[in-house]
Amino acid sequence: MFVEALAVAANLDIQKPGRRDRIGLDWTINYPGRGGTIGFPAINAQVKSWSKPKGNDAEFRYPLEIKNFNMLAGPAYQIPRFLFLVVVPTDPSDWIDVDKTRLLLRHAAYWACFHGDEPILDEDRQGSTHTVPVPRANLLSVESLHGLFAPSFRNMLVAK
Fold this sequence. Notes:
Layout: H1 2-9, E1 13-15, E2 27-30, E3 42-50, E4 59-65, H2 66-70, E5 81-87, E6 96-99, E7 102-105, E8 108-112, E9 129-135, H3 142-147, H4 151-155
Parallel strand pairs: 3-5
Antiparallel strand pairs: 1-2, 2-3, 4-9, 5-8, 6-7
């Protein structure tokens, strides 16, 4: 819901890619197209929430399952793919606060791109995790969400 709320605030369209999780994506976000047309450009996101973050002042160090990493890594996609890491309070009752004037979502979301990384093909490691860096500077906001549509991310992909 955190990501959905940001996309709506950014005036972007957001939808689930499908009922079955075969491609490791939670959201497709795109600029709205005219009625009956395809929205473009678009990005895809895999979303993970984390209540006990680890890392340092510069980055989070998230243990992502290798199969999920492989669905984000490398340039062989037509649409840019990102990891969105939503850092939440430990107690789910603290995630949201509502009153007559506001809806507050705690804490924040961050993004990472792995287009420049190679998928992990080691069969012995399948089922385990690969710790990935998620820069703290990559705070997901309305402005930074729009920035993820930049041509530079599409230009990193082989399947343009």
